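Q: Convert this sequence to structure tokens.
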Amino acid sequence: MSTYLKNMGGYKYNQLKSKSYDEIQKLFDNEMKRVNTFIPMDSEVMKIKEGIEECSKRIEDELESNKQRMEDDKEINEHEEAEDDDEAETKKHMEVVPDDEEKFN
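A:
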């Protein structure tokens, strides 16, 4: 097991010599589990998994763009409201008030 872990698991001799048999057994079991669950890149399972990942990435991108669009719309609405307030205030100040004719006569 130690030889397998050194060659295949990437462990160094110094890392393994301080461990007990049970700890080495657990490391070996983890490495064997990884080997036994290996899925080749060309398999149908990987193609399906990649398709799902692409689909989920596309959905995430769409959600992000929708979120950005909603934030932009909110900023535009706030800006328009501010402009409307400014415009109303300007109209209020530009209101023509007729002078009394008596002052000019």
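The helical segments are 2-7, 13-17, 21-36, 44-93.
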